[in-house]
Amino acid sequence: SSVCTKISTAGLASLPDEPLHSRASPEIAGDSRTEFCLRSAEEIKMGDPDKKWDFYLRTLSSSARDSNLAGDPASDPALLNAVRKLCQLCKEENSEDLVARVYPHFNKLFQRSVASLPQSRSSYGLLLLEIIQFFLDFGEIVLHDADPSLRSFFRSCLSREFADLTVAEATRNFLNVNKRKLLASYPALLPQFFPLLLKLIAWNGEKLLKSFLKVFPELISPASFLPLFPSLVDLPMLVVAMERVERSSGSLIGSSIASIQNSTAPEMLLALMDEAYTGSTIGDGGADSESEDTNAIDAADPLFLELLKDENDGLAERHRTSPSMAAALQAAVNAPQSDRLKQSLKIAPGLLDVYCAIAIRDVNDSLICSLIPLLMARNDVLFPDKNYSYQVRKRLLEFMLASFQRAPNFIALLKKPIMDRLGQAYDSSAKTELALQLCWAIGEHGGGGTSHRDAARELFENLELLLYENLSSRESALGSDSENFRKSSQSRLLCFVITAIAKLATHHHELLPRARVARSRISDVRVWRRARDYLGLIDDPAISLSVLGPSQGRVQKPGTVNWSDGGTKMIAHIPFYLLGEQEGSPFHDFSFSDIFPRT
């Protein structure tokens, strides 16, 4: 058996021209099993078609009988080659009889391999993928449903070997080759295991990104659409979690991260979470080592267990407000970023682009309407890298506006979360920007349309409240640079609120008297001066159309001025630039010469 193994491993191409048995030593040549193996290999080399598959079948049988290999099939280096050759012969010969003879061996080998995985340190990924490919190619002939085999591979094998680049590349190739077949016969498979596939791309990085993008759309289904969103946004945090696991427990290859949840050593989990959240381990000394406040970690905190899960559990909500989470993010930012983390910061925005494009094109209104509150909640809860936060937040806001453009009634349906976000407009710059976009959307789409009068009235009341809060907070004089920035943000928000109130009153005439009352409450002399300038500009039809006219079906991009296409811009640029100024020189570099044509 061992000699057969050596011959098979060497490969048929390397077999010598002279008869093999003439080269064998007297000790080996006297063994009958060795003589058979040598003769078989010689017949294969000479091209006997009937002997090719018989030799490889005997290799499988020999491996199954060998007590040293039965419990760990992948440790036999000849086995993978035999499986590959048999699969190739089945395709070349196109013989159902051959397929029927091979199938029982493959099926038994697959079951033995899956059973051996927990106790083995050998890599089974390539072997199992070859067998599953056989099941997919010839399943109809042998009446084999590949779904249980595929799920066993993901749960038992890929969860342990996703960090192995060779297995990761083979899995990527397997998914791309069988993409149509998996989508047609097993449409729920990839959406169920999208967390595991995101682990694969997060750990192996840009090396797999281009080909992974080809299969990424198949991860999106009604069951995975909502849970997939936070997983994409948290991709850098997933890398941080996996790197901390690696530092705490060694290489990720050969051990299932998800098993941490069921670990028999809870102290390991506590140590891991302590390191992740505070940047230290339970055994660390230091001045604060005795402090319960600094070292107390809630062992029930599901943060890392959520990040490291392998399967879609259908839950889209994640708790992101715990002090432990803030500490973990801060520790990740203060430490030097690994190459893997840097790559994830680049990969996640690109995956979000694909996700949003598919959502707008293919996903139904119900799911998109459910996604928008999650999007608003995550707008200011992102991995604290400045460029990453900007890139992701930009995509989230653009997707939100595109969703409202597609279905304006979302504004009425989501009035409660929208009003909640308007009430948080001054909490942070990210929340201020979100409130700006929501104000614009409310005015642009008439609070959901003329058929949603009650929702429009409630939104109007919230805009009034926001207006009065803004005006009352503007009474203090300008001071520090941060105060000046806050004032400029308030001016910008004020412009959007006033414009939204005017547009709402235009859509719903019963609100016109209240819009006039809101205008009369503006007591700031500077605001009135800028407002008069603004109203004077509005007398120009082109400017009026640009600021207050319809969007004509185009998705808006707030913050851009393109007067050659003024009919589609209604983001209140003019009041922003005018009311944004304070006494003295402008704080921005905007001038009207930038927008009016030169003569």
UniProtKB/TrEMBL annotation:
Q: What is this protein called?
A: AP-5 complex subunit zeta-1
InterPro entries given in the database record: AP5Z1_ARM, ARM-type_fold, TPR_AP5Z1_C
Domain annotation AP-5 complex subunit zeta-1 ARM repeats: ranges: 75-199
Where in the numbering of this chain does the AP-5 complex subunit zeta-1 C-terminal TPR domain appear?
321-525
Checking Pfam families in the record gives: SPG48, TPR_AP5Z1_C
SUPFAM superfamilies under this entry? ARM repeat
